[in-house]
Write a structure and sequence with these properties.
190 residues, 19% helix, alpha+beta, 4-stranded mixed sheet, 4-stranded antiparallel sheet, elongated, 11 strands, PH-domain like
Length: 190
């Protein structure tokens, strides 16, 4: 019966006569040649089972022999998917390594969370520095504790009094901690 085998993205599409079957690549354990002209595809799906395809029935891909067809089908399967190449699949060691990475990430994220919501770190609650020495202009500097005024870790707010109105702008037009407090009078405020 006429058979075609095509790469269908995450699966391999088998068309045997009018019947179409998609095999998920990650479920393929092995592709082998048996009895010199039969392609056997071992599939891991609950209980292990096999699909047998006579080489002579395959019209696509066109290959010189059964071994070449086996290699062509194997080429459809990326080696990183854990498909026909068992050494690239998931292992307990790889899973343990990923668990360690995720645990470290969780620890660091919890630390950042504590900094952001903790009582020690509320950068916009009160400014660290205030300069109201200019006529009608007040600069407020927000940063984490112990940030030197010459470091680029400041968010700087300018409040300018125009008649009865206070106009509030931020250095560089945002509240990012990227400015230097010592440059507050020469920065662009938007």
């Amino acid at each position: 019966m006429q058979t075609t085998i095509t790469d269908n993205g995450a699966s391999i599409k088998l068309t045997i006569g009018t019947q179409v079957r998609n095999i998920i690549k990650s479920q393929i354990v092995e592709i082998a040649v048996i009895k010199t002209n039969i392609i056997k595809i071992d599939i891991r799906l609950g209980a292990l089972y096999n699909i047998y395809i006579p080489y002579a029935d395959v019209t696509n891909p066109v290959t010189a022999n059964a071994e070449a067809l086996r290699d062509a089908i194997n080429a459809f399967i990326p080696t990183s998917s854990g498909g026909a190449n068992p050494s690239s699949g998931a292992t307990e060691a790889k899973q343990n390594q990923q668990i360690e990475v995720l645990t470290d990430m969780k620890t660091h994220l919890l630390t950042v969370k504590d900094l952001l919501v903790g009582t020690e770190y509320k950068p916009f609650e009160e400014p660290l520095l205030v300069d109201d020495s200019g006529v009608g202009v007040v600069y407020k500097g927000f940063a984490s504790l112990a940030t030197p005024s010459s470091d680029g870790g400041w968010a700087i707010q300018r409040i300018e009094r125009k008649g009865e109105v206070n106009i509030t702008t931020w250095a560089s037009g945002n509240k990012k901690f990227v400015n230097r407090w010592v440059d507050r009078e020469t920065l662009n405020y938007l």
